[in-house]
Amino acid sequence: METELSDSLLGTEGIAVLLVYMLVLIGLGLYGKSKQRSSTAGDFYLGGKSLGFVVLLLTLYATQYSGNTLIGFAGKAYREGFVIVSSMTSMMSVVVMYFVFAPKLRKLADKHGFVTLGDFLQQRFESRTLVVLAGVSCIVALANYILSNLKAMGYIVEVVTNGAVSFEAGIVGAAIVMVVYESLGGMRSVAWTDAIQGVILLIGCVTIVALIFGYIGSPQEIFTTLRAAKPEFWDAPTGTALTGWLSSMLLFMFGISLYPHAIQRIYAAESVATLRRAFKVMLFMPIVTTLFMVFVASSGHVTFPGLDAAGSELVSLKTLEYLASHSIFAHVVLISFICAAIAAIMSTVDSALLSISSIFTQDLRRQNTKTASTLQILTHSDKFLSWILMALLVVLAISVDQTIWRLMIIKLELLVQLMPVVLLGLFWKRANTQAIISGFVVGTGIAILGVFGQDIGLAFPSRIVGFHTGIVAMFVNALLCVIGSILLSTSDKNTTK
């Protein structure tokens, strides 16, 4: 084991740094627990709504950019070329969507004490059925989110330790650490660790791209080589490829902005003004994150041409290994970047796990009782349920054979079905509860058929005229909600209070 670790990508000293980092995370979990002001669900899941500008910005950043970005985006860019640059626009559109609905949702959350998105739906539509359906949908999306990030974690740990720590062991070990510190301190622990992870991630992304330009080639040299080797990568999208680009942007804009753990950060902000300031900075983060991963993938084509789909998932790590072999300084930076990758993944998984626990507590198990003592009991019991779910996801992450990008798309096609519910609920007084439920159910059903239909032998398209079926389903969903509300709504009983 010692020999294998000394020959690994990070080396023995780098592995030691990662182990210390893990211990620091657990320490922050203990510290977060000591700062808990009460035993209510609101304090545990929202940190007492005390997140200031810096911590809020960094926790939003570390949550939005994860293993999907560092592994999935780079792999996708390696396979398909510069069309993936559209993902930068898509990530910016996510923040634009936050500006549309987040301030009003945050004001309502402060007024009514929301903890989950389901709390808003209950207050607005007064339907236990809708809350449960939305809660189940969110848990499925979050479980898929955790699954894709656990796979990314396994890839990273196996590569950086030269196989001394296997793909499976890396997933299991990281899962244990994340469950421990998330369960100890709730949102406080998660937000504080996100702040550390966000700084590491940002510095790592910027520095590694600078090293690529220093040791592999300038942007012009890299792109000239890539143009000669892969001229099709530079073709502008046309026809169904163009609608596919638009579809992906809509999928990101409507889906990522409704991540349940992102919604809880909206609730946890100390004020609406703080929230707006954080979003203004977040608007520019794709330039130094998503776009930089495209540069990493481009340099990978120069040094590692001809990788297959499985190999392309590791292109960012292979590029890092190449850089580390050329410079001691690059090796030091490599350790930081690997910490950044693991940081991004862990911040995402712990946030999703905390959100799942809150949905169990607030939406699925709670009836109408809102006493602090009841919520305290549910909080503790549902921590245990989230541990069980994590164990199941660890097993799936080890056994399921899907690319990280594909897992991300599956999650978003299901999650976007909640966007008509949220927007109509916030901004249209005539939105009728029964129409909203009907539209959501139909949209979700179509999305499920589009995602899984062909896997079970049904001749149902995964794309319609280039658009993801989930996006088409969302517009069908919205249309049914609007038409149904016009036909069924005869009073303003369900208006936003």
Task: Explain the overall architecture.
Strand 1 and strand 2 form a beta hairpin. It is built from 22 helices and 2 strands. Strands 1-2 form a two-stranded antiparallel sheet. It has 497 residues and is mostly helical. The protein has one domain: Sodium/glucose cotransporter (Up-down Bundle). The radius of gyration is 22 Å and the shape is globular. Helix 2 packs across helix 9 (167-215), helix 4 crosses helix 9 (167-215) and helix 8 crosses helix 9 (167-215). Helix content is 77%, strand content 1%.
Number of helical segments? 22
CATH fold-level name: Sodium/glucose cotransporter
Strand percentage lies at under 5%
CATH superfamily: Sodium/glucose cotransporter
Mean pLDDT equals 79
Strand order of the largest sheet: 1-2
CATH class: Mainly Alpha
Assign an overall shape.
Answer: globular
State the secondary-structure class: mainly alpha
Judging by the overall fold, what is the CATH architecture?
Up-down Bundle
* Integer count of domains: 1
Count of distinct strands: 2
Portion of residues within helices:
over 70%
Unreliably modeled segments: 369-375
How can the largest sheet be summarized?
2 strands, antiparallel
Rg, rounded, reads 22 Å
Cα(first) to Cα(last) distance is 62 Å
Please write the string of helix (H) and strand (E) elements.
HHHHHHHHHHHHHHHHHHHHHEEH
